[in-house]
TrEMBL record:
Belongs to the prokaryotic molybdopterin-containing oxidoreductase family. This is Formate dehydrogenase subunit alpha. It is an enzyme of class 1 (oxidoreductase). GO terms for cellular component: membrane. Residues 85-142 form the 4Fe-4S Mo/W bis-MGD-type domain. It comes from Haloarcula nitratireducens.
């Protein structure tokens, strides 16, 4: 971002860092790079690849991440002539910001990535460290390159014909004995829209069940449930303009600078350059809080309480937008009555937020010309997560901050395609693609006709939600599973329970790029392509549908997910006429109104690479940068406020479990580590799990930095290394979710689940801690990890 009054070197975030790096090493980097490159490549390489600041940034990453492999793109391509190098523009495979970049490759080897601002409107020249440098996993030695079948407890390689026949036999045998609902399917939010569309079609048309779900259930399903029943769409109402230019932000449950770094850079820049107000409410003092006008530390599990407290204050002090409420909403009277008990004193008692902080935030938000309400899983992963979303949606409606270019709701999505592949494409137990309910006869007939089925053969009952699938195995109601691109042994609540469920299945097939902890339990493993070997589309948090393009050929005999599903359907006698992912999107185009004007051809012809923001109703529709300008997407056109008055989380501390554990992401890892655990640079920073603990709490328990701790909950136990930091409050600890060994999900619980969304309560788990076993001489076990993060690295390049 540019600013006429602010020198580039004084800017925050990635842009400022890159400008400073350029200034610091201008002559050295230019001399070294240009001398090496100019004699070997054309002028275009110098302009688009060999920029000195890119070289310096890459050098920084190489030094900071202790990995010589993190060379600059310039160094990599300088050994080749330009016409020997393949350049492919594509969409990032990490998180759902929707960053784009050019991939430089030669003979199937990825040389590097570099954002091209002409085709990367969301991120410009910025990427996070994972997006820029984490790509060697594609050619990792342990990539799956051939199907595997298990015999006598051991895997052996098999042909595709044998492996697909084994999967078809395993699924069909269970279906014949106990019916289609004895089977379930898990789709992947890391796979493309096209991959997910054909997976839901396979479940419904070929097998005959609505038992299909994906990891959206474990993260933003509460968001979808709450927003769709309030506004109509279960997605962000605003786009990048609001995130860059709004007058005010309320961020909660979001470690933005580590989970979505590019968005964090935009927010911090707006705060600094335009004096936008930033309020952060979170149990843990994450880095984005350092930039806030007000950071409010809240007790874990009491989000509805402080949100209702804000709404009550606004109503009681006549700060609400009466005209907007009267003309565009229903249910205000019930909300006005319900929030009465959430007095400032009650909010402070339960949620820990002082009255003056409630007053300041409420007044500023209500009086701002525009406001964006942003959140991630800290708001949704609760047993009453949908109520939390009702509460923040009510706040947006009461203040009238929705339906305009710079005001609205913006849930930040964690996985690269959880919005599109995890929701829009219908790998859901209750919805066809485009959120068209399976229980509605009209939609069942619509999709039955499209698939040339008798409508009576289209399953009508809603299927199992994801965690319910694992519970159903224990009840002997589910006997077989097909899991695509997910690792539930690590991601499901209570890892021990998840493993036990997988071991109890009669048949399990897994489709992935590595032999994950989940795949180890499978009867058949099918090798899929990675993002950089795939074609299709992803949909970002801001509803941008963007092209994904194959940069290198698949390794070994790996195949695209959609092609595997097509060939598996053929084993059952179904001949789908898809020759390319664009054919699949053409079918989506016909069946999903919000994607009605989206085709690969149209996306390819866009000049700026921006993609199209759904809803795109027709072929000539320009897309929708922000929704609800004139009406909400409900039958009446009005937004429906919902009562939300749950106060306490599902469990609270006691003498046996006096501390509360929260969980979340770290900068250098992604989801369950399937890709990032193969990256030396990422692992040099976070190669193991850890426990953040407040120094005062540590002193109370006799814990020192780097001690190994045993953490026990009512549901399981694990061990991890202590990191003393004031990020959590006293009486609370934080453990990342990425790891199996030492990870948070050894401790979390699979019940109770959120009522409407069936999301687990990841964010509130009561625990006890103790020092792990001592050495023989009685000394405490300590592990040295000089790269472990604490407050001292708060200014490191971020990957929110």
């Amino acid at each position: 971002m540019s600013d006429d009054e602010t020198p580039d070197t004084e800017k925050e975030g990635v842009a400022g860092f890159m400008a400073r790096a350029r200034e610091q090493a201008q002559s050295q980097a230019r001399d070294a790079v240009e001398e090496h490159v100019q004699s070997r490549a054309k002028d275009a390489v110098n302009e688009h690849v060999v920029r000195p600041f890119e070289h310096k940034v890459s050098d920084f990453a190489g030094n900071a991440m202790s990995e010589g492999r993190l060379f600059s793109v310039a160094d990599a391509v300088s050994d080749y002539q330009l016409n020997e190098i393949d350049v492919t523009d594509t969409t990032c495979e990490f998180c759902a910001v929707g960053c784009r970049f050019d991939v430089y490759s030669k003979d199937g080897e990825i040389l590097g990535k570099r954002p091209n601002p002409d085709k990367a409107p969301i991120n410009g020249i910025s990427t996070c460290v994972k997006g820029k440098f984490s790509h060697s996993y594609v050619n990792s030695d342990d990539r799956l390159t051939q199907p595997l079948v298990k015999e006598d407890g051991e895997f052996r390689e098999a042909s595709w014909d044998e492996a697909l026949a084994r999967v078809a036999e395993g699924l069909d045998e269970i279906r014949e004995e106990d019916g289609p609902d004895a089977l379930s399917f898990v789709a992947s939010s890391k796979a493309t829209n096209e991959d997910n569309y054909v997976m839901q079609r396979f479940a419904r048309e070929v097998i005959g069940t609505n038992n299909i779900d994906n990891c959206n259930r474990l993260c933003h399903s509460s968001t979808v449930s709450g927003l769709s029943s309030t506004f109509g769409f279960g997605a962000a109402s605003v786009g990048l303009e609001a995130l860059e230019e709004t007058d005010c932000y309320l961020l909660t449950g979001s470690n933005t600078t580590e989970a979505h770094p590019v968005l964090a850079t935009r927010i911090k820049q707006n705060v600094k350059d335009n004096d936008a107000d930033l309020f952060v409410f979170d149990p843990r003092k994450v880095q984005i809080a350092e930039y806030a006008d007000q950071y409010s530390r809240v007790e874990p599990g009491y989000d509805t309480t402080w949100l209702n407290g804000l709404t009550r204050y606004i109503i009681e002090n006549d700060l609400h937008d009466e005209e907007f409420i009267e003309e565009r909403t229903t249910g205000f009277e019930q909300i006005e009555e319900t929030v009465q008990k959430f007095t400032p004193e009650f909010v402070e008692e339960k949620a820990g937020v002082p009255p003056e902080e409630i007053a300041n935030a409420a007044e500023t938000i209500a009086e701002a010309d525009s406001c964006v309400f942003g959140w991630t899983l800290g708001l949704t992963e609760h047993s009453h997560g949908t109520e939390n979303i009702y509460a923040i949606a009510n706040l947006a409606l009461v203040t009238g901050h929705i339906g305009s270019p710079k005001s609205g709701v913006s849930p930040f999505r964690g996985q690269n395609n959880v919005q599109g592949g995890g929701g829009d494409m219908g790998p859901l137990p209750n919805n066809f693609p485009g959120y068209q309910p399976v229980a509605d006869e009209e939609y069942r007939r619509k999709f039955a006709d499209a698939y040339d089925m008798d409508v009576d053969d289209m399953p009508r009952e809603e299927g199992y939600r994801l965690t319910d699938m694992f519970l159903a195995v224990g009840e002997d109601d589910l006997r077989g599973m097909f899991i695509q691109g997910e690792n539930p042994v690590t991601s499901e609540p209570n890892s021990g329970h998840a493993k036990q469920a997988l071991e109890g299945l009669d048949f399990l097939a897994v489709q992935d790029i590595f032999l994950t902890e989940t795949a180890e339990h499978a009867d058949v493993v099918l090798p899929a392509t990675s993002s950089l070997e795939s074609n299709g589309t992803y949909t970002s948090s801001t509803r941008h549908v963007q092209l994904v393009k194959r940069a290198v050929d698949p390794v070994g005999n790996a195949k695209p997910d959609w092609q595997i599903t097509k060939e598996l359907a053929a084993e059952f006698g179904y001949e789908w006429e898809y020759d390319h992912p664009s054919d699949i999107m053409d079918e989506v185009n016909d069946l999903v109104p919000i994607y009605g004007g989206i085709t690969h051809e149209r996306l390819e012809n866009l000049d700026d690479g921006d993609g199209l923001q759904w809803p795109v109703w027709e072929d000539d529709h320009p897309g929708t940068p922000y929704t609800y300008e004139d009406e909400f997407q409900t039958p009446s056109g009005l937004a429906h406020m919902h009562v939300c008055d749950t106060v306490d989380p599902s469990e609270t501390p006691d003498e046996d479990y006096p501390l509360v554990m929260t969980s979340g992401r770290v900068l250098y890892q992604y989801h369950t580590g399937t890709m990032t655990f193969r990256e030396e640079g990422d692992m040099s920073y976070n190669d193991r799990s850890f426990v953040e603990i407040h120094p005062d709490t540590a002193a109370e328990y006799g814990v020192s930095q780097d001690d190994m701790l045993r953490i026990t909950s009512r549901h399981g136990e694990t061990t991890a290394m202590a990191q003393l930091t004031t990020r959590p409050s006293e009486g609370e600890i934080f453990i990342p979710m990425h790891y199996l060994e030492g990870g948070a999900n050894n401790l979390t619980k699979e019940e109770p689940l959120d009522g409407p969304a069936r999301t687990p309560e990841y964010k509130v788990t009561d625990v006890q801690i103790s020092l792990a076993d001592a050495d023989a001489d009685g000394s405490v076990v300590r592990v040295s990890n000089p790269d472990a993060t604490d407050e001292t690295d708060a200014d490191a390049p971020s990957d929110d």
